[in-house]
Design a protein that fits this description.
Number of helices: 7
Structural class: alpha/beta
Largest sheet: 7 strands, mixed
CATH superfamily: Flavodoxin domain
Radius of gyration: 16 Å
Strand content: 15-25%
Shape: globular
CATH architecture: 3-Layer(aba) Sandwich
CATH class: Alpha Beta
Number of domains: 1
Oligomer: single chain
Length: about 200
């Protein structure tokens, strides 16, 4: 049995992308799980989404088919005033047809973020990112305190999801504890997706 976990993110300066790649490593460490890394295009208040056919570099843009196909979702965005960035919100706002058909209902999901200041809204961003996933009927997965890095970290990492503190553009790579928490989130969602599939609750 093989399941696919969609790791979907938006990143402006690279710190959220770096965290996304650690989530993918956690997914790939679970036998029978594969990570599908996708991003979303930037948007402008004046022009809407800027949508070249493919990104100039990095992973492809996500489609609704990616969401339908996956067995689990891990969603990542930088914080913007305590909430997800506009490009991710714009993408999620376009998933009404999936909501209407229940395409994501019953699938496990988690969230991750990055901020430039220690109290810059990590937890509120994670919680507000979870709200549309609840509307889709997804099963929210956090990070338990049995993950020892959660008690050690002095930068990012919360029980609501993985996070990273990047005070400068040069500090885009997560530290050891942030990395461990991001990978743990990928592992948990993969194992839950596999268990659900084995029980016949989801493809």
């Amino acid at each position: 049995m093989s399941i696919e976990i969609l790791v979907l993110y938006y990143s402006r300066h690279g710190s959220v992308e770096a965290l996304a790649r650690q989530v993918c490593r956690g997914v790939e460490s679970v036998s029978g799980a594969a990570a599908c890394l996708r991003t979303v295009p930037p948007v402008s208040a004046q022009t809407g989404p800027r949508l070249p056919e493919v990104p100039s570099e990095g992973p492809p843009y996500a489609t609704t088919e990616d969401l339908e196909r996956c067995s689990g979702l891990v969603l990542g965005s930088p914080t913007r005033f305590g909430n997800m960035a506009a490009p991710m919100k714009y993408f999620l706002d376009g998933t009404g047809s999936l909501w209407l058909g229940g395409a994501l209902s019953g699938k496990p999901a988690g969230v991750f973020t990055s901020t430039s200041s220690l109290h810059g809204g990590q937890e509120t961003t994670l919680i507000t990112m979870a709200l549309p996933l609840l509307h889709h009927g997804m099963l929210l997965v956090g990070v338990p305190y049995s993950e020892s890095a959660l008690s050690r970290t002095r930068t990012g990492g919360t029980p609501y999801g993985a996070s990273h503190l990047a005070p400068t553009p040069e500090a885009s790579q997560p530290d050891e504890d942030e990395t461990a928490i991001a990978r743990a989130l990928g592992v948990r969602i993969s194992r839950i997706a596999i268990a659900l599939a084995a029980a016949g609750n989801h493809p």
